Amino acid sequence: MIKKKISSILVPLDGSKNSIRGLEMAISIAKEFGATITGIYSINIPPHSEFQGVVPIEKEYDKETKKIMKEAKTLVTQNNIVFDEKIMRGDIGYNIIKLAHDKKQKFNLIVMGSRGRGAIKELFLGSVSNYIIHASKIPVLLVK
Questions:
Q1: What does the alpha-carbon distance between residue 92 and residue 89 come to, in Å, rounded to a whole number?
Q2: How far is residue 1's CA from residue 56's CA, in Å, rounded to a whole number?
Q3: Positive or negative, the Cα torsion across 122, 128, 134, 140?
Q4: What is the DSSP letter of 20?
Q5: DSSP label at residue 49
Q6: 20 to 30 Å CA-CA from 108: which of 11, 22, 118, 135?
Q7: pLDDT category of residue 117 using cuts at 50, 70 and 90
Q8: Residue 31 phi, psi dihedral angles, 5° rounding
Q9: Is residue 123 over pLDDT 50?
Q10: Cα gap 121→11, rounded to integer Å
């Protein structure tokens, strides 16, 4: 008999097809266990000094982030699952692990796509996904 119950799933989102597949897998698991899903979108924006004269870029990131989180919330709530969202700024991998290990949250599982929308897609598995796999103290499910 399985003693561990999955009650809270963390799903990193970036709007890519792989992150949506990860969300869909998390929905399947959440239905099975009656778990909640928290979607996290972490934005790594370089310091403002690098954007001299390019003010709207942060607003564009915010617009896109809200769109991605709204679509995720719609998909999750259509399946009668409770959805929470977290938007963080800074290093993506670090933020995901920081939230995953937050004692107040008590996540049981991270479900994520194997590659995201990084500038160099081939390196994504070697960067964020790889970092999450090695730094996480809770189980990680990578979805291709």
A1: 8
A2: 54
A3: negative
A4: H
A5: G
A6: 118
A7: low
A8: -60, -45
A9: no
A10: 19
* Domain positions in the chain: 8-143
Half-sphere exposure of 117 (CA within 13 A, CB side): 14
Q: Does domain 8-143 have CATH number 3.40.1080.10?
A: no
Place of tokens 């915010």: 62
- The token pair at 31 is 């239905």
What CA–CA distance (Å, rounded) separates 95 from 51? Answer: 23
Six-digit token string for 54: 């390019």
Do 138 and 38 touch, CB atoms closer than 8 A?
no
> Residue 30 and residue 47: Cα distance in Å, rounded?
37
pLDDT (average), residues 90-114? 94
Rounded to whole angstroms, the Cα distance separating 68 from 39 reads 10
Of 83, 74, 90, 92, which is closest to residue 36 (Cα–Cα)?
83
Sheet holding 36-43, edge to edge: 83-89, 36-43, 8-12, 109-113, 140-143
Instruction: Please provide the average confidence, as pLDDT, over all residues in the chain.
Output: 86
Question: How many angstroms from the chain centroid is the CA of residue 27?
Answer: 13
pLDDT of residue 43: 83
